[in-house]
Amino acid sequence: MDAKQVLEMDWSDKQQAYRLDERSGGHSNRSPDTQLHPSSAATQEQVSNPTTWTKFTQDNLLQAAQEEEASSRLRVLVEEMLRETTEDLINQRSTVDGAFIQRCQELMEAKTELQTRLTQVLQQIGEQEKNIVGLQKAVHLKEAPLRVVQSRLHLRSLRPNMELCRDPAQLSLEAEAAQIETTLNSLKQKLSEARSSLSNLEESRMELQKDISCKSHSLFIEGEKCMTQRQRLPSTSRLSGY
């Protein structure tokens, strides 16, 4: 039984005794509610005497005072622990918030750099596509002269007997064919390189767009979802227990 219960019981007993004594003191010879109680005058087995009665109450009061003092010390200790815990939580919250802000800044900077690079790649893709179109036209323009010179050489190869002579016209046609073939092969090589470069640029574009999408999603998670949830954390007063 704790001190509060002991005091309540002692107070209740004293209150009841007070009412009985008050009622007893109100009796007189003219009281209509008095009766004969022959055995009431006999000595009763008392549970206390004035000395033990006083000591019992004083002991109860002393125990209550001791419990109150212990409770006060405990309350001070709890409040100190709560204050320290609150400070730790506030400091930790500040640290985490700072980390979130820094992370969002890093993500935003990375996203900006990626977008700048994507703009450059898109520009290079456009230029390379124009370059490919130009090379295709150049190849097409060289194919017609090549067909002409090869057709001439083919017809001249049909000349009979001694007429099949490597005369200056023949040598000129052979030189022209060689020059056109060299130029055409060079154009086709550049066209192949341009197409390969365009393919690489397209891959870079897709990777950049994918990375930008990931950065945007991370920013949404960090900046919107997480920070919104953190704004719902208890206030300083609530953390302090108020």
Automatic annotation (TrEMBL):
User: Which positions are tagged coiled coil?
Assistant: 104-131, 170-211
What is the annotated localization of this protein? Answer: Cytoplasm, Cytoskeleton, Cilium axoneme
Which terms does the UniProt entry file under GO BP? cilium assembly; cilium movement involved in cell motility
Q: Which InterPro entries match?
A: Tektin-like (IPR048256), Tektins (IPR000435)
> What's the chief localization of this chain?
cytoplasm
Q: Which UniProt keywords apply?
A: Cell projection, Cilium, Coiled coil, Cytoplasm, Flagellum
Q: Which GO terms describe its cellular component?
A: axoneme; microtubule cytoskeleton; nucleus; sperm flagellum
Q: Which regions are flagged for Basic and acidic residues bias?
A: 1-13
Specify residue ranges for compositional bias: Polar residues.
Answer: 26-50
Q: Where is this region: Disordered?
A: 1-50
**Annotated family:** Belongs to the tektin family.
In its UniProt entry, what is this protein called?
Tektin
Organism annotation:
Oryzias javanicus (Javanese ricefish)
